[in-house]
Amino acid sequence: MISVKKNNIEGWLFVSPLVIWISLIILVPIYIAFELSLFNVKIIGTSGKFVGIDNYIKLFGKSKFLNASLNSLYWIIGNAICQTFFAFTIALTINYKFPGKKIMANWIILSFIIPTVVVVVIWKLMLSSSSGVINSVLIDIGLLDEATGFFSSPNKAFISLVLINSWRWSPFLALIILSGLNSINREMYDASKVDGANFVQQFLFITFPNLKSVLFVLGLVGTLLSFNIFDIIWLITKGGPSSATTTLPLLIYETAFTKFRISQAATLSIVTSFLLLLFSIIFIKSMAPKEDD
Amino acid sequence: MIKENNIKLIFLSLSLLLIILIFFFPFFWIITSSFKSPEEIIATSTTIIPRSFTLEHYNKILFNSDFFIYLKNSLIVSFSSMIISIILSVSAAYGLHKLKFYGNKFVEYSLLVTYAFPGVILLVPIYLLFAKVNLLNSYFALIVVNVLFATPFAVWMLKAFFKLIPNEIEEAAYIDGASRYIVISRIIVPLAAPGIASVAIFCFIISWTEYLFASILISGDDLKTLPVGLAGIVGQYQIDWGFLLSGAVLASLPVILLFVFIGKYFVSGLTEGAVK
User: Fold this and answer.
1) Chain B residue at shortest CA distance from A175
2) Confidence of residue A29 (pLDDT cuts 50, 70, 90)
3) Model pTM?
4) Does A28 contact B129 at a Cβ distance shorter than 8 Å?
5) ipTM of the predicted structure?
6) Which residue of A has its CA nearest to B230?
7) Degrees (nearest 5) of the Cα angle A251, B117, B271?
8) What is the pLDDT of residues A242-273, one digit of tens each?
9) Facing residue for A167 by CB, picked from B22, B208, B275
10) How does pLDDT run across A148-188, given as a tens digit for each residue?
11) Is residue B243 within 8 Å of B223, Cβ to Cβ?
12) Which of A28, A125, A293 is the best residue to mutate to test the B interface, defined by the most B CB atoms within 10 Å of its own CB?
């Protein structure tokens, strides 16, 4: 009917507008950044002298770079743990029948559809040390003696930010997990019940393996998305206290727009892109589920 | 059997309670707080049930601030981004999932990677590029970026919907002599309508909530979007909480309204598509 060859040309025709749009907006800027990373430009618009790979060599000797890379790593791990926990709790709960299930399934995603700035406003108010509701509840139930500043010490600030970011993203991830749960054949559960499988066994041997392709996408996209988070951290702690919450995105932003070292920022962007690309390739090569259709 | 059911019931109730407390209570809190008097908002003894009621914060933000300028900018940018994203992603998804062409897996995975790729890494380079071609301080700059953020995932979302459309329908139409254009406009688009609706709302949300690029690419006050305007208040040394909270509620209202009408498509688009 439709020859394979025709499909090839037409297929590319249909994807090309998007592919061209995306490539232009990613590849041209990356090229500009690469060029810049070989020069010594400070303020945007000024010219600098050619320094070759000097910026790259200097970068790896900087403790700031090491610190931000480690923070990014902790950030990704922390978020992965929290979001997996919250997202599975939500998805498995909504997967049950209970009154109000539809409303909850529709509106659980509220934290994802509002602007990030609003997320920041919500948690800045709720976690405020002087008048925050969390502090006063924790004091009322006896968990705290006096109000604590959730963003005042490095560890507390980091953990609070991970929790806030997970609060924003988990419901969205939960719905994607739910889509995987919905595609699992109900009969498998019934059959396993006849065989005497309990709740935990069902989860481990039916639910989890059947979520593979969904979890693959979440693992890849989720990791990259977590890595990219900027606004929540920037608007709450600005990377502090004492750089404890400065992840690589914040370091790039700071270097470019508050310290005005544009070539250094470009170098950072290139190195980071390379690291993420490497991660993606390894992840896809090793985890991509086999297509069975 | 009965015992296991009881345990399940306890778990279900506990997790429901936890979900409501963690994911819904904060909204109750900022909405009610936005109607509280300034003194009550910052009082050390917090009250779950508000003691005061005032509209002064809303009065101030609606009639004494640039709210409507920011709202207009956000609406223009978000709607334009949404429409361009829909056209590009429906076309790409059709090509990817209905016409299996050579290299489609590569394009599919590359799109997934680019979905997460942009962000701050591209910030400096894109800023420089737009400065070169004189696109800074324009709606178009933000639209270009938003489409980049929204489309890759949109294509992935559409996959499930396109897979649900049996190939036989299309083939039957071709036998009857229908052209590709007719097939797409009369068969594919109507059948994938719920999917397109969910993609539309996703693209709108992505554009509506975007802060980072809007804060860097736009410097003129008359072109700022709502998130940037709000962030300006967050950054002030002495935060006017009432003002900020009413602004936060109003900035969320348009997406929430949109969600009231087509949110169920978005959620079912995410959850009921046979993702394989």
Assistant:
1) B271
2) confident
3) 0.87
4) yes
5) 0.86
6) A117
7) 125
8) 899 999 999 999 998 888 888 888 899 889 88
9) B22
10) 888 989 999 999 999 999 999 999 899 888 888 877 777 88
11) no
12) A125
Indicate the burial class of B59 (C-beta count within 10 angstroms; 0-12, 13-18, 19 or more): exposed
What pLDDT sits at residue A171? 93
Q: How many CA atoms lie within 13 A of A266 on its CB side?
A: 28
Of B145, B171, B252, the CB nearest to A114: B252
For residue B235, the distance in angstroms to the closest alpha carbon of chain A comes to 7
pLDDT at B86 exceeding the cut of 90: yes
Give the residue from A162, A151, A205 showing the smallest Cα distance to A71. A162
CB pairs below 8 Å between A and B: how many? 307
Q: What are the chain A neighbours of B16 within 8 Å (beta carbons)?
A: 93, 98
Beta-ladder partners of A49: A40
Task: Identify which has the larger pLDDT, A6 or A238.
Answer: A238
Radius of gyration of chain A (CA): 23
Three-state secondary-structure class, residue A10: helix
Among chain A residues, the shortest Cα distance to B12 is held by A93
> What pLDDT sits at residue B104?
80
Bond from prior residue into A241 cis (ω within 30 degrees of 0): yes
Neighbours of B116 (CB within 10 A): 21
* Residues A128-151: tens digit of each pLDDT: 887 788 888 888 888 888 888 889
The one-character DSSP state at A43 is S
Judging by beta carbons within 10 Å of its beta carbon (0-12, 13-18, 19+), is residue B60 exposed, middle or buried? middle
* B230/A114 CB distance under 8 A: no
User: For chain A, what is the total number of helices (H) and then of strands (E)?
Assistant: 15, 2
